[in-house]
Model the fold of this input.
Amino acid sequence: MQKADVHESAAEGFPCIELYADSRAYVENHIGVIEFGESIVRLKTALGILRFEGAGLRIRNAEPKCMLIDGQIASITFEKGDQRHRGEQRSSLCGNFSPDMLK
Amino acid sequence: MWKFFSGYAKIRVECSRPEGFVNCALQRGAELHNLKRSSRREFTAVVRSSGLAAVREAANECGAELQILKTGGTAFLLRSLLARPALTGGLAAAMLLMAFLSGRLIFVSAEGAEERIVLAAQELMENGLELRFSRAKALDRAELIERVSGLDPSIDLVRVEVDGVILRVHILTAEDGGSGEDARPASIYADRDCVIVSISASSGKPLVRAGDAVKKDQLLVSADISAESGGGERVHSEAEIIGEVARVLSVRVEPAAALPVPEGAASRFFAIELFGITLPRADKERGLAMEIKHKARLDCTFLPIFALDARSREFVIGTRKLLRKEMLAEARARLDAGIAAALPADALIVSKITELIWEEDGALTMSATVHTYEKIGTERYL
Done:
């Protein structure tokens, strides 16, 4: 997979998410995998736990810094309870986000 | 593609917390692909061969049970070959041998002339010139032809052919008809009446043109080209001449023909039919005809067995008057067979006109006029 232009926030260690329709998500700067299964994938990031929900989810590629997830993605959420914000929150996909918002 | 070149392994991991194992493997620089969770404690993934050591370390640290389900790709193939030095050495030696021999002449053969000359040529090539196992590119064809030609004065032509690792030498002598016959002066004559469609002479002097009607035995291409060269020279004429030939064929079919007909006297008999086969069988060749009068199924059995009340007649050769349809079919069949037999193999039929005449005595005369394009000309030596 080719990396697109790296966002400024990604360079600072914050997560950067590229979403291809509702079927594939490319996450940069994750810290580790908290949970993975067919309906949920949770990744640890500098901004907290990034939660993917959907159906038929699968980790296609897992690398030390990057992760490619595919499947039918229904929602992408930052879990607020475990958030540890450091500095200004600059990720464009922070908070609650749903691919339905694009429709 | 990367899977093939770098080598890959499909693994199954079982541990209390698979996520911990994944993080542990990622920290060690391993890359995991196609992670599929099969149960709460178990998942499968694909790793590159280069990351397999890191995955093993992670499994030891996390207390996970690691199982390699499948391996593939070049790296694992090389590893398995290195684990079998005898096999690898044998394969490498065989490949080196093939590479060494592929550019050399392994088989040397002579053919075409009488056995004495062939054996001499074979001996010359193998022992005299030592061509066997020599390099094909270094073969001196001119020298080989010269040496083989010098073996016997009757050798007319030597042709050398290298086909991979095979060297073939074809030897032609004058007795084989190689070139001696063609040098004799010859003219071309028409071998049948026709109209010339095209004429193309490569040697000799053409005396007719396209559109000319020629008769059988008429001179078409003359061997005498003295008018052209002015020296009374005679050549072996060569030409391709196509002519349109017309043929008329006719057949006569009589209205009556000798045919096997059933005799008047009949004898009654019983037969059995089982699965469509009647016993005893009617056999026209043996001169028996059978007429079935009654047919009844035998209810005492589940099998399809029938009892037949039949009448048999013997065939006798009698004269029967043919129907017009039968006469036409007979005439067409005989005419087609006659045309097929009369035409040469290379003839191209351009038109075919068929006429029917019903005679007063009831006979049928069918005639066909067939126009064909075919090669014309026969050589006659002077």
Observations:
- Chain B is about 25% helix and 45% strand.
- The longest strand of chain B covers residues 256-274.
- Chain B has a mean pLDDT of 82.
- Chain B touches chain A at residues 18-19, 22-23, 26-27, 29, 31-37, 43, 45 (CB under 8 Å).
